[in-house]
Task: inverse folding
């Protein structure tokens, strides 16, 4: 038996609870893992609170990422005792995830725990930091340089935003942070932002084209915020879109794309091939100051996950929530 957060939907309604699960109930997979740490991401918040149709089958153990130690393996890629990491692949949605003391998953979904990181540090980065790195890699692919101008990061006080700021500033870019929590301005500047603006400057309906301001954008918000960010991006600039905190609509026009030649990169962190995942973590190991992780992350227990999921959806969480599933 092991502890887990379990989501059910039946005649009694939609509910998430901390419970005991028999190991025999674990779903199929080549590798069984003793989970050490998981995290709470926006998608986990949607799943646990039921505020979004994230969970595709019930009962479900949420948690879209985890790090831990291999307990059992029928795969040649991993042996008992190996330390491993998982991000995405639909765990916590269609396959039991990481908010539990054990998980059984497909070997193809795992990568070795990146060198230079402990399990806790890897999860302090987690899916949010890994997604931010994928956004930065897209901008690097676009060959953007710090001399090209300022980079806008929306949803700046969240997990993806916090990491995007610190990664971009480490690479020499001047970063403007957009947030709905101006009280976090000092925190954002400590991460590397040179300017902090209120999200209301971007969140309302805007013009198809606006004054050129940004060489690039990392957006985790979507909707009008993404549309306005595109409208304000400089000619030949790039926008990396990875989230939908404001909404999944995109009320824009073709104007920024055909009149300024900007590029919109969609960032899907869920099904990225293993080689690209490893490359992303290699860059993270070079760019992330481990001392900064203490600023960005906060450890909670497995039992606290349900309470903090509600806080996350209310917009009351700064940075990353790392879940010690054995605490």
Result:
């Amino acid at each position: 038996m092991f502890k887990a957060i379990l989501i059910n939907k039946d005649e009694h309604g939609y509910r998430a609870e901390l419970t005991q699960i028999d190991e025999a109930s674990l779903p199929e997979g080549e590798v069984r893992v003793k989970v050490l740490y998981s995290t709470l991401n926006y998608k986990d918040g949607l799943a646990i609170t039921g505020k979004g149709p994230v969970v595709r089958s019930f009962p479900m153990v949420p948690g879209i990422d985890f790090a831990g130690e291999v307990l059992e393996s029928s795969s040649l890629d991993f042996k008992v005792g190996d330390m491993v990491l998982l991000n995405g692949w639909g765990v916590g949605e269609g396959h039991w995830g990481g908010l539990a003391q054990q998980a059984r998953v497909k070997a193809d979904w795992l990568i070795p725990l990146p060198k230079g990181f402990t399990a806790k540090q890897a999860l302090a980065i987690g899916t949010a930091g890994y997604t931010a790195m994928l956004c930065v890699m897209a901008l690097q692919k676009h060959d953007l340089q710090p001399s090209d101008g300022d980079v806008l990061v929306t949803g700046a006080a969240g997990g993806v935003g916090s990491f995007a700021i610190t990664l971009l500033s480490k690479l020499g870019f001047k970063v403007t942070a957009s947030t709905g929590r101006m009280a976090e301005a000092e925190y954002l500047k400590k991460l590397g932002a040179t300017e902090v603006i209120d999200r209301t400057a971007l969140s309302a309906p805007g013009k198809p084209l606006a004054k050129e301001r940004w060489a690039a954008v990392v957006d985790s918000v979507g909707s009008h915020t993404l549309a306005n960010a595109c409208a304000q991006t400089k000619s030949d600039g790039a926008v990396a879109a990875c989230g939908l905190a404001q909404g999944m609509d995109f009320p824009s026009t073709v104007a920024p794309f055909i009149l300024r030649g900007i590029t919109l990169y969609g960032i899907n962190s869920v099904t990225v091939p293993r080689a690209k995942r490893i490359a992303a973590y290699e860059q993270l190991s070079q760019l992330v100051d481990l001392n900064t992780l203490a600023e960005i992350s906060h450890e909670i227990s497995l039992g606290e996950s349900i309470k903090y999921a509600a806080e996350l959806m209310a917009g009351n969480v700064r940075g990353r929530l790392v879940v010690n599933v054995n605490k």
In short: The mean pLDDT is 95. The CA atoms of residues 223 and 250 lie 5 Å apart.
